[in-house]
């Protein structure tokens, strides 16, 4: 038996194939990105910092964590800062972290956060319009040259989990807190996972 295919019978097959190709391309674009916290070099201290704001300019808090080349917890901090935007919270978290850098005499410091806009402002010396933001940025730009070596990088939130957790803790605090040598219970597992090089997948 001979079966003849007309143009009309081929079109649905072509459409099906085109749809499958589109789905395949979409899945490639949505492929997960592996993210892991990275240890600093020997002799360096790494600060991961984060800010949190509930709403456009709601209740805000900051947090950060310092670790050495062995991924050992050195110091953590968290604080509620009243009402502020997420941008102000992020820059306030970095500023507070740098104040602690000076207090502890660390000279070779790696600063890492998950808010790329702020990282670009610091690294590329970009201008900011907000007077409050400018005050924080000016203080940061005064502190960084005081350090022997300083590296500033962006990391996805999945690689900034310890700082994010400390910033969340900050929402619950009545006054600023600093933890030395031993992290708060809520951060212990994250610190251990980071030290072991745990990879967290980031979905695009």
Automatic annotation (TrEMBL):
Signal peptide boundaries: none
Entry GO MF terms: nucleic acid binding; RNA-DNA hybrid ribonuclease activity
InterPro entries, per the entry: RNase_H-like, RNase_H-like_dom_plant, RNaseH-like_sf, RNaseH_domain, RNaseH_sf
Ranges of residues in domain RNase H type-1: 48-168
Name of the molecule in the record: RNase H type-1 domain-containing protein
Lineage summary: Eukaryota, Viridiplantae, Streptophyta, Embryophyta, Tracheophyta
């Amino acid at each position: 038996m001979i079966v003849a295919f007309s143009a009309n019978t081929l079109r649905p097959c072509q459409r099906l194939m085109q749809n499958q190709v589109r789905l395949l391309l979409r899945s490639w674009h949505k492929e997960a990105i592996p993210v892991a916290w990275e240890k600093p070099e020997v002799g360096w201290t790494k600060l991961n910092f984060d800010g949190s704001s509930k709403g456009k300019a709601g209740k805000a808090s900051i947090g950060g964590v310092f670790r050495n080349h062995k991924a050992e917890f050195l110091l953590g901090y968290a604080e509620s800062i009243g009402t502020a935007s997420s941008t102000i919270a992020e820059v306030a978290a970095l500023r507070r972290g740098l104040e602690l850098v000076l207090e502890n005499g660390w000279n070779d410091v790696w600063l890492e956060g998950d808010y790329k806009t702020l990282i670009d402002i610091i690294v590329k010396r970009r201008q900011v319009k907000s007077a409050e933001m400018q005050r924080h940025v000016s203080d940061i730009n005064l502190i960084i040259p005081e350090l022997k070596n300083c590296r500033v990088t962006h990391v996805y939130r999945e690689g900034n989990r310890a700082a994010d957790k400390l910033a969340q803790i900050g929402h619950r605090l009545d006054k600023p807190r600093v933890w030395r040598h031993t992290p708060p219970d809520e951060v212990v597992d994250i610190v251990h996972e980071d030290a072991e090089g745990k990879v967290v997948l980031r979905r695009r």
